[in-house]
Amino acid sequence: MGDDAGGSSLTKKFSLSRGKKSSQRAEELRKDIPIEEHMWDVEKMFSHFSVDPSKGLSTDQALRQRKEFGENRLTPPKQTPAFIKFLLQFTNFFSLLLLGGGILCFVGYGIDSSDDTNLYLGVVLVSVVLITATFSHFQEAKSEKIMEGFKSMVPKKCKVLRDGSPTVLDAVELVPGDVVELTDGDQVPADIRVFQTSELKVDNSSLTGESEAQDRYPDTCPPITDENGVVKPLPAIEATNLMFYTTIVNSGAGKGVVIGTGDRTVMGQIAGLATETSAEATPINKEIRKFIMFISAVAISLGLIFFFIGVGLKTDFIKNIVFAIGIIVANVPEGLLATVTVSLALTAKRMHAKNVLVKNLEAVETLGSTTVIASDKTGTLTQNRMTVQHCWYDGKIYRVPAARNKPQLDAAMASGGGTEALYNPADTTFQHLQMVGTLCNNSRFLNTDRFDEQAEAFNVGQQMTKPDFNLLGMDCTSDASEAALVKCTQLIRDIEEYREANERLFEIKFNSTNKWALTINKSEFTGKPVLLLKGAPERVMRMCKRIMVNGNEIELTREWEEKYTEAYESLGGMGERVLGFAYKRLDDTPVNFPFTNKPEPNFALDDLTFVGLFSLMDPPREGVPEAVAKCKRARIKVFMVTGDHPITAQAIAKQVGIIDQDHWDSGHATVVKGDDIRSWMELSDTSAQQAKWDEALSHEQIVWARVSPAHKLLIVENAQRRGEVVAVTGDGVNDAPALKKGDIGVAMGIAGKDVSKEAADMILMDDNFASIVNGVEEGRLIFDNLKKSIAYTLTSNIPEIGPFLMFITINIPLPLSTVLILCVDLGTDMVPAISLAYETKEADIMDRPPRNSATDRLVNSRLISFAYLQIGVMQALAGFFTYIVVLNDFGYAPRILMGTGLSYEEESLICSLDSDLRPEQCGYGCKEPRMEFPKGVETYYKNPAYGEIEFCKGGCPVPFPGTADPFSEFTDAGFRGFGGGTDAVCGRTCEWWQEVKENGLVVDGEKFDIKDLLGFSNSTNASENQDLRFIMTADDDMLFDEYCGKEGDIKYGFPGRGKIASGRENAAEAGSFYWWNGSQQLWPNKGYQENALKYAQSAYFVSIVVVQWADLLIAKTRKLSVFEQGMHNNFMNFGLCFETVLAILLSYVPFLNTIFGTRPINFLHWFPGVPWSMLIFVYDEVRKGQMRRNPGGWLDRFTYW
């Protein structure tokens, strides 16, 4: 074989493009198949492949071809390992944020393990990410099985000529140039150019969508002239001398030469498109990603701001980290991803009950935001089986109702035909039409159970009388047209009984030359032969001299020919395939006459009687017109995208309502042919191409006919370019690339090929297009419910963030701990948030236009305003009110809390009293004394004479009245105050006393000696040097002299001890005492103080639960009153109980108190949040009521989320 004979033009094209970039490959895949062999004569083809058609390739030639082009198999795509897919679940920003927070918590716990809060928080955050990622992986991850679907279609064996001998080979061994023999039922093993045929027909329905089997001839395909007069090559997909990889030989036999194998076939191009096409991110995925980025940016920004504020205030670094994490955790709704995933899974389960299998969870919502449904015709909008629609006899067109059984036919005949008259089975002419259609027909019912091979065959004649029998769904032998005829006539008379009564004597089968079929039968009435003929109407009409009218045979005049022509064109114009029927009585011919047609028929064929016409069509599925009407009401465009003829496609489109006559008349509807798309793609100017696409897509109603798989993909891509959200439906191999490219792919579960099912996101298990409308409704409902769930979840962010803001800004004790925030987000809020997925639809859900992804966002400014600035603020006020009530009950009045927050949990509060003995000003005194000092230094705190005592741990006690401790920060009259400086209070040592005694105490540049200080303590004027009156008392001076006036090694006091209060915290005033249990105390009690805060934090947490009761109720609807919607959502009712019970458990179960830092609050402390909960409910009911009364008003525009 010469170098120039390496393969087809398609083979060369693919060989040359192997090194090109993927973008170039993608562009090539979207163009028409580069095949030229259908335009060559057979001699040129034999020469090109260097093959002798009688001998085939030699073994050496085949080996060279296989070395160059490889095996005849499709290349599988690269697979991502399952563990990589699982790890990718952790790479979204949201998960990384929580993981980072968890790691920081572990770091904090490692540095300071005295507080288990960081450990618990870290474990919870990491667990949240792990659980969510695992759940998402198992719910959403789907293995890439597209190529497996193609593999299941690849032919296993084929008959090939090699080295002059026929041999059976595995199909993978075929190479370009091989001569292949094919017969009835074979699967085509490669792209083949036929050169010899015998009544050859192929079923291309899985590839082109054409219901009828297509004839194949060896003749060269001439060029075509388009509507502009330009001569062009016939597209390969329409060539009548090509057979394509994986299609089926319907009937006949033939031989051909392999011109393309594996990836270099039409099917290979579709496989390439399906695997090369990137799956589009779903709208809900984009919305969630945007929301996560927004909320994460807010969380991190606030966290960093408050972290640096803490750094500026010289707060402990680890404490700053924990605070920053708290801010982030409070802002980020940790349960959102789990809530979304579970909500989608629940909806998918609900869809499954409606015969819709959801493979990609997010696809459900996508269907709700769909603006265009691009639907395949054959098998999706139609039944993919030919059915008799009309008949013409006695000069009139009658409708033939399609019925599943005899009772249904009787009911249809009794109801009348509406605007169309029904045929009358008793009409003599129709009985002759029935006779020809039944007897000149080789189709038989396959009356065995295809699911049980052992079951006995059933009698169709008996079964068809049952009301649950479906004759239309039965499989038949022969082609689709003959099957449609017997399904029509069987209900009038059992065809097997009819044929047995009218024995067949002779037959001439249909062939592409005659375009008719003929039988001669023995008449059951006369016992004489009768000739029956059916075929192309124009051929049948030319063989007739008479026509039957009202049961009488009359001369076929020009008038009757015109009536026939009008009927033929009318039926053809409706997209129906028309067959003509004729007969001739052979009364003068004996039954045993040796009829033959070799070499010519030995009986006359030019004096037949024309009986009438039957017209057939692949009819629409039941419920499709209603489903299309619902789509129109929901403002969703329905495109028909088919490889079938434009006239047929337009007729079906009008039947199902995709094209309305008024739109067609006004120019708002159009039919775009594949040739139009080809001419657009030949334009060199990209903008000119887009202009053509935009012009076509601007029509409101569109049918795309005679399009190739690459064209389908272009249709989807250009619609998406215009901002449409495209749902693609289909069942054939030809739909796979577009199914994957669409925003959502919907495949048929029964008729659908494996390839289309794997490429799709959803599968209609009942193959009912009408189920898509249910999907649209569910998709819109889930978007509504996700909005409600997010609105419910976000409102608790403000009462969660508020405590940290108040803690940092006005420095109050932290009202809500980080762990309790997680208890809200991942505990009490989780089930109620999920319960909103069970909420039923609101009344107007299918009357709204599709969601505008640019403006109608999942989380918009109105929802943020509602959740944060309206409901969230009310919830925060409820929490703070409850917090204040509880602390006040423990003796910590609101006025003393500001300025005490940073050290509240570590240090003891010291308060001064007013004249009514109420705390007036609170602050902090001295830090705890150091435990370790340089070797040889002994202190009052650590004295060998008394062992290891911790006399002033947590703060020195206040001396009893009449006693004194010169080294303590207290006198028996209270705290000494910081008027004389920190050392004068916290650093009182022998060295300090000696320094004051010798050099005096300098305060603000003024020097005071011991006598001055003693004088201040004895002064009766309380306002005179108030801040210095407790620095040195007479008892202090005496005791200093006693302990420090002697020589020795022991040094008393607390050297290096500083004050607690930083610049933002209150320092204790002179004369203050410890304050706890609502009164002055002589000893510190940090445990009481800490417990009081824990009780207040627990009550704050409980108040969030209480106000979330109302929040959940108002989130049930976006505009309707809760009283209209009702409380029928049982799962939500359970959610209300769940969050309440969980709050009770967290508050009152001892070991949970330890883990989460909660306390068993008093029963009365549940009630401070109740009025706020009622306020939230009433506020929202009033708001919604105003919106309903004034649609489009200010409230509607600015608060309808």
For the terminal residues, how far apart are their CA atoms? 72 Å
| Uncertain residue ranges | 1-22, 142-154, 943-949
Helical content, roughly?
Answer: 40-55%
Based on secondary structure, the structural category is: alpha+beta
β-strand amount: 5-15%
Strand element count: 34
Overall pLDDT level: 82
> Helical element count?
45
Largest sheet: 9 strands, mixed
Using the alpha-carbon principal axes, give the shape.
elongated
What would you report as the Rg, rounded to the nearest angstrom?
45 Å
Q: What characteristics describe this protein?
A:
disordered N terminus, 45 helices, 1201 residues, 8-stranded mixed sheet, alpha+beta
Note the topology:
Blueprint: H1 9-16, H2 22-29, H3 42-49, H4 59-69, H5 82-88, H6 93-111, H7 117-140, H8 146-151, E1 157-162, E2 165-170, E3 179-183, E4 191-203, H9 205-208, E5 214-215, E6 224-225, E7 231-232, E8 242-243, E9 248-260, H10 266-276, H11 283-312, H12 317-331, H13 336-353, E10 356-358, H14 363-368, E11 372-376, H15 377-381, E12 387-393, E13 396-399, H16 406-415, H17 428-439, H18 460-463, H19 480-489, H20 495-501, E14 504-508, E15 516-522, E16 529-535, H21 537-542, E17 544-549, E18 552-555, H22 558-573, E19 577-585, E20 608-617, H23 624-633, E21 637-641, H24 646-656, H25 661-666, E22 669-673, H26 674-681, H27 686-697, E23 701-705, H28 709-721, E24 726-730, H29 736-741, E25 744-748, H30 754-759, E26 762-764, H31 770-795, H32 797-809, H33 818-828, H34 830-835, H35 861-889, E27 910-913, E28 919-923, E29 970-971, E30 974-975, H36 983-986, H37 990-999, E31 1001-1003, E32 1006-1008, H38 1010-1018, H39 1034-1044, E33 1073-1076, E34 1079-1081, H40 1086-1114, H41 1122-1125, H42 1130-1148, H43 1150-1156, H44 1170-1189, H45 1194-1199
Parallel strand pairs: 11-21, 11-24, 17-20, 21-23, 22-23, 24-25, 25-26
Antiparallel strand pairs: 1-2, 1-3, 3-9, 4-5, 4-8, 4-9, 6-7, 10-26, 12-13, 12-20, 14-15, 15-16, 16-19, 17-18, 19-20, 27-28, 27-33, 29-30, 31-32, 33-34
